[in-house]
Specification:
Elements (H helix, E strand, L loop, with lengths): L12 E3 H8 L7 H7 L3 E5 L2 E4 L7 H11 L4 E2 L1 H7 L10 E5 L4 E5 L2 E7 L8 E6 L2 E6 L1 H11 L6 H7 L3 H7 L2 H10 L3 H14 L2
Parallel strand pairs: 5-7
Antiparallel strand pairs: 1-3, 2-3, 4-5, 6-7, 8-9
Helix pairs in contact: 4-5, 6-9
């Protein structure tokens, strides 16, 4: 009996589940191994593959990969702060938050870090269309709040000064009324105190 011919879907991310929907429950997942050897796809993790048409040199492509690797999650913390130009240093890894357990994956030269946050605090992110896929990233307000919430040193004025936050970019993009509403949802006084320290050091 001739081997059934499978076509690589024309989409950035390909899963075993997608292929079973397309070809039925008898789909042979061993075809992924052949596609990897032929350079048609790249394995990200079990059951998840990246089309060879999607390169890994773009920051936004890495964001899309990060979202797919560990779900649910969204880009936040240092990666989002750099995205919004709130901090000057280039970030060579992606950082995300998730209601799942802390995790990390290495894909090529990039490490994808996932920090755990309570499921009640998993909000304040936007979904952006990017080429043939999407990426989810914290709003400017939530990126700062996630950082303040998860980074104990955020209470230290000297540490904040060393981060070299850009007051002009923050002042341009942040809605402080929304920030305060989000802060109340995330712990109230403790988070508001850290924001006060940030505003004092950065002269906002």
């Amino acid at each position: 009996m001739p081997r059934r011919r499978y076509e690589v879907p024309d989409k950035p991310f390909i899963t075993t589940a997608d292929m079973r929907v397309r070809y039925g429950p008898d789909f042979d997942p061993n075809v992924f191994g052949r596609w990897v050897r032929e350079g048609k796809v790249r394995k990200l993790r079990n059951g998840l593959y990246l089309s060879s048409n999607m390169d890994l040199t773009s920051t936004l492509n890495h964001f899309a990969v990060a979202n797919q690797l560990y779900r649910p999650s969204y880009i936040s913390l240092e990666a989002a702060l750099r995205y919004y130009n709130f901090i000057p240093e280039t970030v060579y890894h992606t950082t995300s938050v998730t209601p799942l357990k802390t995790q990390q994956f290495r894909i090529g030269y990039t490490v994808h870090f996932y920090r755990t946050i309570d499921s009640a605090l998993f909000f304040g992110y936007h979904l952006h269309q990017w080429k043939d896929t999407t990426y989810a990233i914290a709003s400017p307000e939530k990126a700062l709040l996630d950082f303040a919430y998860l980074e104990p040193q955020f209470a230290d004025a000297e540490w904040i000064e060393e981060m070299r936050f850009d007051e002009f970019e923050i002042d341009e993009l942040v809605d402080w009324e929304l920030m305060n509403l989000y802060a109340q949802r995330m712990g109230g006084n403790a988070i508001l105190h850290r924001l006060h320290t940030l505003k004092k050091v950065v002269a906002l």
